Amino acid sequence: MASHTPGAPVFAAPAQLPDWALRSIDLANPRLGAQALATSDDFFAEVARMLNPEPAQFVPGKFDTNGKWMDGWESRRKRVAGHDWALIKLGVKGVIRGFDIDTSHFTGNYPPAVSIEACVSDSDAVDALQAAVWSEILPATPCGPNSHHIVECASSEAWTHLRVNMYPDGGIARLRVYGRPVARPSALAGATVDLIAMENGGRAISWNDASFGSSGSALLLPGRGLNMGDGWETRRRREPGNDWCVIALGVPGTVEKIEVDTAHFKGNFPDGCSLQAAYVNGGTDGSITTQSMFWQTLLPLQTLEMDAIHTFSDEVVKLGPITHVRFNIFPDGGVSRLRLWGKAESK
């Protein structure tokens, strides 16, 4: 019998995200430390694939020893009572705004319904998690084939782990958990840390443009950018002005050193950058963005180079404790990462 060569992969279309999801981060991103810890069954496709930050793909003609290779979590056909489940550790403790339960490429093998529970645990041990107190944060929700299911979560608490339930079995290509990281002020107090890192609770609250690459939130991801698509990149500006991103620190702190990384941005890096900052009490994301135009200078205008880490310490203005920064790039372009190293303070 002639061997069959798999065809070219077909990638899932991106989800059309509402504003609350665009302004959130994926708490289940493995780059933040998220993990699939255990599952009742992943016979056809291992559960870890469900958290892959890349779009799901379908490869015609690709099979493994258990059957058709699928890009996601897929259990076998259940022939007994009950349902399948998976335990997920979030990359960072956070308040969840909603989910994208993505069944892309799962047509006759998607779950008819999915529910999600959450808990807070200091342990990742399966026995400890099974014994934890779980709260349902997404009731059983109908699912369809080959679709992004964007659903909101009503919970206002912060969680560390999820239990994803499929009724009764089937496959989920991707799970995105949109939310806001929660800082640990007592744990960070007095330490020198990256005050805006996602893992420390930092979040981008607004930006004027993200026509290319990721949103402003990409500036806060761990590590250096993987490629030119792993950063914040704006369109080519055809009018006066400059582009900007407003960021909330995970915990108030005094900035001592700033790093601006233009990794992979070569013909499209900004000519320069500056930062403004303030200690903000109260307000909404919208009102804070408006105020940011008038904040004090934290870093005067600095010249940038392509594909390089720029470190500034003597240039940093001593403003004392701050809670927010406005990152200005001139006039436009792409930046991979922004780091604000300094002393954290408890609130």
UniProtKB/TrEMBL annotation:
Domain of life per record: Bacteria
What this protein catalyses is: allantoate + H2O = (S)-ureidoglycolate + urea
Q: Which GO terms describe its molecular function?
A: allantoicase activity
Q: Name one GO biological process term.
A: purine nucleobase metabolic process
Question: Pfam families given for it?
Answer: Allantoicase
Q: List residues of the Allantoicase domain.
A: 33-181, 201-344
Keyword annotations for this protein, in alphabetical order, are: Hydrolase, Purine metabolism
- According to its UniProt record, the EC number is 3.5.3.4
Q: Which InterPro entries match?
A: Allantoicase, Allantoicase_dom, Galactose-bd-like_sf
Gene3D superfamilies attached to this UniProt entry: Galactose-binding domain-like
Keyword Hydrolase attributed: yes
- Keyword field contains Hydrolase: yes
| This protein's pathway | Nitrogen metabolism; (S)-allantoin degradation; (S)-ureidoglycolate from allantoate (aminidohydrolase route): step 1/1
The family this protein is said to belong to: Belongs to the allantoicase family.
Q: Which HAMAP family match?
A: Allantoicase
Extract the PANTHER family matched here: ALLANTOICASE, INACTIVE ALLANTOICASE-RELATED
Name the chain's protein. Answer: Probable allantoicase
| Species per Swiss-Prot/TrEMBL record | Thauera terpenica 58Eu
